[in-house]
Structure formats: C-alpha cells, structure tokens
User: Fold this.
Amino acid sequence: MFLVALTRWQNPSPETLSAEVTALGPLLGRGAYELRLELSRPPPVVLLETTDVGLARSLLASVRGRGHGAVACDAASVTSSESMLRPKTFVLGSEAVTLSRPGTPDRQARYAELLALIVATHARQDETSEEVREKKLSLGRAALTGGLVRSKTSSVTRSATTVETERVLYALDRSGSGHALFCETRLHYSGLGAAMKKSSSESFTALVAELRARAPSARFDDRLLKSRTGSSLNLSRTSASRTLSTSNAADVDLAVHLLAVAFLQGQG
Assistant:
C-alpha cells in the first residue's frame, strides 16, 4: 500500500485551505466537507492510500506542483515504536548518548547521525464495562409470596473510562534503523547529572533540551505533542466484564515516519 501525504503548507491560511479543497477534491474523489476536515489537521495528513504506484506519483506531483510539501512512501516501511529500543537509562557522552535497557546490549546513538528529534504524545484509553447483579427489596414480591420472597435480582451495567498520556521522544537515526524511543515516565534520569530535576516531567524536558544542544544538525519537531486520533484496538473479555483499549501509537508512528521522509526530501 502506497501513501501520499501533505507535509507542509506553502502558505497556511483559510484561503489556502479553501483553494486546496477545491483543487484536490476531484483528484481524491472526496466531498468538500470531508476533505476540509482532513486538511484542517496539522500536517502530516495522509491524502491517499492506494496500490496504484502511478496514481500515487501523479498526486504527489500535483500537490508539490501547487507549492506544498508532500511525500509518498510504502506503508510497509513504517517503523513501529514497539520495535524501537526503549532505554531505561542513558549516559550523555561528548559524541554519543549510550542507551541501556535490561536484557539488551547497550547501544550508542551518535549525535551527528541523528536525523530528527520528534516529541509526541502517546495516549491510551481504556473503557471497561462490567455487568453487576444486584438484589433489591421488592414489596410486591413479598406481598405475592406471603413474605417468602422479599427481593428481586436485576443486572446493571457499570462503565468506567480511564485515559493515560505520556510524552515520548523519537530519536531517529539517519540510517533508517537503530531508532530509539524515550518514554517520559519509564526513564531513570540519573544520566542528566546536575541537570536532573525533581519530577520526571521536568527531567524529560531537560533531556530533550540536552539532546537538542548536543545534536544541532538533527531536525527538532514537537507538532505531535497534540494527541492524534487513536486507531489501535485491543479487546479483552471475561465472563463478567469487557475492556476496550484504544491507543494512538500507530497513528503517531506513521506521522513520525512521514515527517522523517519529509525532512530527508526537503518537504518538511
């Protein structure tokens, strides 16, 4: 599956949005209202998913020809954050950061070889529904049975929703492999030394600043801090309850990949 995505507006404005809705609508076969909603999101925005390479190239040329940033890629080339090294500890060296995680060999990420540092938000929502059987006093039943049966049993469904969010930092290597994912609440920040703060939130911000300073050639982007729509689903069931979990990780992984391609091709 090939993807074509808008990665940068030439001149972001309401007028530009209206003009592109009019121009791209016929090419994409979408109505104005639907397309306007999609293009109102911050780039990158996937415009087309197709198995037709020629169609993907044609749309890419059309969008770039109108002065906007755009990229095309194979969906199979997207690296999942689940496959990235998620360090527990780190050591900031003069030329590289050493990443460590129990059970895996240490890895060095050289600052000069970092393509991008992209800060994003991973969000997970759990919706739990549980059927509870309750006994309540029933005066009607008591009267009909001469007091032998004084209660009735009924089923009530109780629902609860919890949302967890976490800032993450994608450290992308120029080679296309060896990417690392720093997770705000799962890091030990002793590697910051005197720059370590009292909370994980403050320490994460300090780590991002340190890496930016040590890798000045790496592109920095934080547009994905605003949580993107969740798409990954996990459904677990028991005899009495059901939990539906949604995560935006897959959407964020795709957006990060599109930004990386855009940076490499000068389309970001």
The longest helix spans residues 249-265.
